[in-house]
Design a protein that fits this description.
Helices cover about 55% and strands about 10% of the residues. The longest helix has 17 residues. The chain contains 22 helices and eight strands. The chain is α/β, with parallel strands linked by helices and about 450 residues long. α10 links the parallel β6 and β7. The protein folds into four domains: about 110 residues, DnaA, N-terminal domain (GMP Synthetase, Chain A, domain 3); about 150 residues, 3-Layer(aba) Sandwich (Rossmann fold); about 80 residues, Helicase, Ruva Protein, domain 3; about 90 residues, Orthogonal Bundle (Chromosomal Replication Initiator Protein Dnaa, Chain: A). A five-stranded parallel sheet has the order 5-6-7-4-8, sandwiched between helices. α12 packs across α13, α19 packs across α21 and α21 crosses α22.
Length: about 450
């Protein structure tokens, strides 16, 4: 008997073969991971594994999905994606005929929240095992491992800061996953500051009791909060969190926080909170260097999600040109993988990749328009030497080291070739490559050098 209403699963089962017909590989990589949650009027709500996955689909495959949802029983459905869901178990086959000539479902949108809560959250894939370690994150990685091994006993609180897309959330979730394995008896709570604020203001708006809200954050052994800088200017919530923090700290409960800046740099943050955030261990996470970006890309290439074996030439192209953050790097990698997979028998070239990613490459280029002269002046000032010294012929350590740092930064922060950098310093391309390797090695073993290079990079990029 034909149903008298259409369900989310009905609509999704019609869209699936359309997506498969466009590209089996893209379907397997992205759409097979989705599950139908709710049909609210003409909007299909779909669950995806995480926010990064959601953004990649919206940026690169939203048109494909919209096309697959057109003209189903005469209706052009739109869609919304909700992160936090693993793929649903295979459902019984639904015949297209069951969807034809039936009425639209008008399920109330308000029922979505209850179904979302009931379906369970997805399993995060973040772990220490797939976190690529380099000079810019080595200290934070080591501290995170130590915290996961002995939560509450060392490095408490642990405060991780860095710009967007460098791996702070990865470390946070890796700590959570490791503690769950090593200390399954502990209660671990991992939340976002934005989520906490939404709950807090909902309580204020509806004049409800704060008992459950406080218990949610207090009745734990480990509390991990992402993006704590969002507490900025939130006076009431800062006062509430100050009390929660103190209680957890006195009980030796582990606290881990991430932020896009250091505690002392968070505007309009209660100084009592800032001082407490700084009383444990504070570590910066920076963007991976070229070599670590290349390792990361190779790891993604070998993962089960991405079956397309991009050649090393393409991986080196991505590692050399996408340096602002890991999210953009992964998005470009996934998009390029799909394009190569969908190219059929036609040879896909670097020129094709440049055309495909021209917007991202332009943004990267604009963010890296740094002149060698700017680098030379800043490095000279930092090390207490002159620019003529840096571009001159003296080879004393006092001058040679800053010169190598300046050439290394030119390699990292500009799009100049090694020959062009050599010309700016009166050196050969071999000198530039030697300097780049030397400073990269020093950053791994010499904390003073690593901090100096990190500080110079920040000054040049802002």
């Amino acid at each position: 008997m034909i149903q008298d209403f259409v369900t989310a699963q009905n609509v999704w089962e019609v869209a699936i073969p359309r997506l498969q017909a466009r590209s089996e590989s893209v379907y397997d990589q992205y759409f097979a991971c989705m599950q139908a949650l709710e049909l609210a009027g003409e909007v299909l709500h779909l669950g995806v594994p995480d926010d990064f996955f959601r953004d990649v689909v919206l940026d690169n495959y939203g048109d494909l999905l919209s096309e697959a949802l057109r003209n189903i029983n005469g209706i052009d459905y739109s869609f919304e994606l909700h992160d936090g869901y693993t793929a649903a178990p295979a459902a019984p086959e639904v015949k297209v005929e069951a969807v034809k000539e039936v009425q639209k479902s008008v399920a109330p949108a308000s029922t979505l929240a209850s179904k979302v809560a009931a379906s369970g959250r997805g399993i995060h894939t973040y772990s220490f095992g797939n976190f690529v370690v380099g000079p810019s994150n080595r200290e934070a990685f080591a501290v995170a491992k130590a915290v996961a091994g002995e939560p509450g006993n060392i490095y408490n609180p642990f405060f991780v800061y860095g710009t967007n897309g460098v791996g702070k959330t990865h470390l946070l979730q890796a700590i959570s996953a490791e503690i769950n394995v090593l200390h399954p008896e502990l209660v671990v709570r991992s939340v976002t500051c934005d989520g906490i604020l939404n709950d807090f203001y909902d309580l204020l708006l509806n004049k409800r009791s704060f008992t459950d809200f406080r218990a949610f954050l207090r009745d734990v052994d480990v509390l991990l909060i992402d993006d704590i800088h969002l507490l900025s200017k939130k006076t009431q919530m800062q006062e509430e969190f100050f009390n929660i923090f103190n209680l957890l700290y006195r009980q030796n409960k582990q606290i881990v926080l991430t932020s896009d800046r250091q505690p002392c740099q968070i505007a309009d943050l209660d100084q009592r909170l800032a001082s407490r955030f700084e009383q444990g261990m504070t570590c910066e996470v920076g963007m991976l260097e070229f070599e670590e970006r290349l390792v990361t890309l190779r790891m993604w290439r070998e993962s089960s999600l991405n079956r397309c074996a991009l050649s090393d030439e393409f991986l080196e192209f991505l590692a050399g040109n996408i340096a602002s953050n890991v999210r953009r790097l992964k998005g470009c990698f996934l998009r390029l993988s799909a394009a190569v997979e969908m190219s059929g028998g036609r040879e896909f070239t670097i020129e094709d990749a440049e055309e495909l990613l021209h917007v991202q490459l332009a943004e990267e280029s604009a963010s890296r328009e740094i002149k060698p002269e700017s680098i030379q002046h800043l490095v000279a000032k930092h090390f207490g030497v002159s620019v003529p010294d840096i571009i001159g012929t003296r080879r004393t350590r006092q001058v040679a080291e800053p010169r190598m740092v300046a050439m290394y930064l030119c390699r990292e922060l500009t799009r100049l070739s090694s020959n062009e950098i050599g010309d700016a310093f009166g050196r050969t391309h071999a000198n530039v490559l030697h300097a780049a390797r030397t400073i990269a090695d020093r950053c791994q073993t010499d904390d003073d050098m690593r901090r100096a290079v990190s500080q110079l990079k920040k000054q040049l990029q802002h």
